[in-house]
């Protein structure tokens, strides 16, 4: 295929996302006022608890089979590599730019977690349906492309809500305790060990002192003098430390991860699959209902991105070096490393010769930060304004970066 044909094929799905994002920004303006701050917060809750789990579960159940999963065994490893390599590059960026402490977890998150969900679900099938697509028959291409995108979305959700969610949670609690550690701002209730925050500091969702390593701070007693501090016994410190290290299963099993687990169970167990999936399945109404709900996740998430981008225009000032560094990581270094990883895995024999499969694996390295990071920062009230600024600039350049990299990847595999 000629370069311009490849460029046109790659640009169409990106433009679709761009138009919906622009619509989200438009209805979030003060003059229109439909997508207000409160509306975005409520929509984030709906996406987190309802739409994302339904989308992940329904797509996995419909497209993932045991035979396909065997062929795609390298994809979870590939996505994990994007997180590890992105985190390493983010850590280097933090060392070079020295941002404020409360932004370090956010920088690690946006460097490691790409938008593996709605973008791939839109881009891959759209490329398959183009007449100039290099992947052959559109029906077969769409079927396999949807399976690749669904597994990518599921694994991305698992990694985001188990990795990024927890580093932002821990960082938000740690920073809040560091800020509120003086007796004038923080009280400690001996009977119920909770952090009692004043209204001006009530934004982060802090649950208990067990969220933080107890030996990092000394707890002031109620109505005590500023110079009088409570001595915490070693046994209490040890208990708090073990609680801080222990994985919180309730938080680890986020709704999206639960949806992925259900989708895998339905898709991989033939007896259950025949009962739920297919036109003649007796319980097909369950799958149809999940599909109906899940289809709303993509447009809603994209609209939220648009609303958050508008907030980024009014957001706080940030170091230009941090923003530029994040874009270098996401749009230059990671895509180049992705080519080496996928081509190396193919040379070794870990990746089969399907050009569509290789295209999706490489594209996973070239995506903008995950939209769910905005949801996570707003859930904890930790760096939400700064996240809007980062999303504004990364998504402003995403249409150009994704189009160019997608075109190059199409040329590599075609």
TrEMBL record:
Keywords: Auxin signaling pathway, Membrane, Transmembrane, Transmembrane helix, Transport. One of its GO terms (biological process) is endoplasmic reticulum to cytosol auxin transport. It is a multi-pass membrane protein. GO terms for cellular component: endoplasmic reticulum membrane. It is found in: Endoplasmic reticulum membrane. The chain crosses the membrane at residues 6-28, 73-94, 106-127, 147-164, 252-272, 292-310, 322-344, 356-380, 392-412. It comes from the Eukaryota. It holds the Pfam family Mem_trans. Involved in cellular auxin homeostasis by regulating auxin metabolism. Regulates intracellular auxin accumulation at the endoplasmic reticulum and thus auxin availability for nuclear auxin signaling. Belongs to the auxin efflux carrier (TC 2.A.69.2) family. This is Uncharacterized protein. It comes from Kingdonia uniflora.
């Amino acid at each position: 295929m000629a370069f311009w044909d490849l460029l046109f094929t790659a640009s169409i799905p990106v433009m679709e996302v761009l138009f919906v994002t622009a619509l989200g920004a438009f209805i979030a303006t003060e003059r229109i006022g439909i997508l207000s701050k409160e509306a975005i917060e409520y929509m984030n809750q709906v996406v987190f608890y309802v739409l994302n789990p339904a989308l992940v579960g329904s797509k996995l159940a419909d497209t993932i089979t045991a035979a396909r999963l065997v062929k795609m065994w390298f994809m979870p490893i590939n996505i994990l590599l994007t997180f590890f390599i992105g985190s390493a590059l983010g850590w280097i960026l933090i060392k070079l730019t020295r941002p404020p402490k409360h932004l370090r977890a956010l920088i690690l998150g946006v460097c490691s977690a790409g938008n593996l969900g709605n973008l791939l679900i839109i881009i891959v099938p759209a490329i398959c349906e183009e007449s100039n697509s290099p992947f052959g028959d559109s029906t077969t291409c769409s079927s396999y492309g949807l399976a690749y995108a669904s597994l990518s979305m599921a694994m991305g959700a698992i990694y985001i809500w188990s990795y990024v969610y927890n580093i932002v949670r821990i960082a938000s609690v740690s920073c809040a305790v560091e800020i509120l550690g003086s007796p004038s701002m923080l009280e400690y209730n001996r009977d119920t060990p909770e952090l009692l925050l004043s209204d001006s500091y009530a934004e982060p969702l802090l649950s208990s002192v067990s969220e933080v390593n107890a030996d990092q701070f000394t707890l002031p007693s109620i109505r005590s003098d500023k110079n009088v501090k409570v001595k915490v016994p070693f046994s209490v410190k040890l208990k708090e430390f073990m609680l801080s290290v222990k994985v919180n299963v309730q938080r680890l099993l986020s709704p999206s991860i639960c949806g992925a687990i259900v989708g895998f169970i339905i898709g991989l167990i033939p007896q259950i699959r025949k009962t739920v999936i297919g036109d003649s399945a007796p319980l097909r109404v369950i799958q149809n209902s999940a599909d109906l709900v899940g289809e709303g996740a993509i447009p809603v998430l994209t609209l939220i991105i648009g609303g958050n981008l508008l907030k980024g225009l009014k957001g706080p000032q940030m170091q230009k070096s941090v923003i530029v560094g994040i874009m270098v990581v996401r749009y230059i270094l990671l895509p180049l490393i992705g080519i080496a990883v996928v081509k190396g895995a193919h040379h070794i024999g870990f990746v089969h010769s399907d050009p569509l499969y290789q295209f999706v694996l490489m594209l996973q390295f070239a995506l903008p930060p995950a939209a769910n990071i905005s949801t996570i920062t707003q859930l904890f009230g930790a760096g939400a304004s700064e996240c809007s600024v980062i999303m504004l600039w990364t998504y402003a350049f995403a249409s150009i970066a994704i189009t160019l990299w997608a075109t190059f990847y199409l040329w590599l595999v075609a």
